[in-house]
Amino acid sequence: MNHRKFLQLPVVTTNYRESGSWMVASTSVDVSYVVEDVYNNTERFSQLIFRLNVHRKAGNYVYNTLVPMVVSSFLMTITSLIPTEVTI
User: Fold this and answer.
1) Nearest CA to 45 among 31, 34, 61?
2) Alpha-carbon distances of 83 from 13, 24, 74, 78, 86, rounded to whole Å
3) Of 26, 36, 27, 33, which Cα lies nearest the Cα of 48?
4) How far apart are CA 79 and CA 65, in angstroms?
5) pLDDT in tens, the chain (88 residues)
6) Nearest in space to 7 (alpha carbons), one of 49, 69, 55, 64
7) CA–CA separation, 68 and 83 (whole Å)
8) What gap in Å lies between CA 48 and CA 42, rounded to an integer?
9) Contact residues for 14 (Cβ-Cβ < 8 A; gap 6+)
10) Cα separation of 33 and 30, whole Å?
11) Potential cystine with 31: which of 7, 9, 37, 81 (Cβ 3.0-4.6 Å)?
């Protein structure tokens, strides 16, 4: 298998809608040709490779993991202070 790089282009992100959890850092599209022997014939195929480099936003971890843990710990502590018997 023989690879030959032909062209490198950026990914068009005009229709991209930003996510609350992920951020697209960089994009690229590699256009190349692959030459293979298929049934004793040399064939040339086009190949597209799309690369998306994404990063997770730090706020997502804080809001979805740490805040619920702190709130539930606080509520468990408060509920242990509530008296179990009612006196009339």
Assistant:
1) 34
2) 59, 52, 17, 11, 7
3) 33
4) 22
5) 555 555 666 777 788 888 878 888 888 888 888 888 888 888 888 888 888 899 888 887 788 888 999 999 999 999 888 877 777 7
6) 49
7) 25
8) 20
9) none
10) 10
11) 7
* Contacts of residue 13, Cβ cutoff 8 Å, sequence gap at least 6: 24, 27
Q: Are 13 and 4 within 8 A, CB to CB?
A: no
- Note every long-range contact of 36-42, with CB atoms under 8 Å and residues 24 or more positions apart, other chains counting: 36/1, 36/2
Domain boundaries, the chain: 2-79
Q: pTM higher than 0.85 for the full model?
A: no
Which residue has 């256009």 as its token pair?
31
Q: Which amino acid is at 50?
A: F
